[in-house]
Design a protein that fits this description.
By secondary structure, this protein is of the alpha+beta class. The protein is 26% helix and 20% strand. A hairpin with a 2-residue loop joins strand 3 and strand 4. The mean pLDDT is 92.
Length: 93
């Protein structure tokens, strides 16, 4: 089941989600969606993973919400994808 970060009503139709069918070799990330556009943000670095569409097109309020909730998003990712945790397994040892 995907995880959706709750956003204030003023940010509708923006959505921030960890999708439930991510590829296990991908960088752990959260997906920001606005209508038909989407951006991926790394849960390790907090940086945008793609250049198109332009990260500057994302509402600053949405970026702030993601940055302020990174720890929650990391925990949610790790629960869904324990074989691809935010902190790589080799770094934990």
């Amino acid at each position: 089941m995907p995880y959706e970060l709750p956003l204030p009503a003023a940010l509708t139709p923006w959505k921030v989600k960890i999708l439930d069918k991510e590829l296990l070799f991908e960088e752990p990330h959260v997906t920001i969606r606005f209508k038909t556009k989407h951006w991926r943000v790394s849960l390790r670095s907090g940086m945008f993973l793609d250049e198109i569409p332009k990260p500057s097109d994302v509402s600053p309020a949405v970026v702030a919400a993601v940055q302020s909730k990174l720890e929650i998003l990391r925990k949610e990712w790790d629960e869904r994808f324990p074989t691809n945790p935010v902190t790589p397994l080799e770094e934990e040892e």
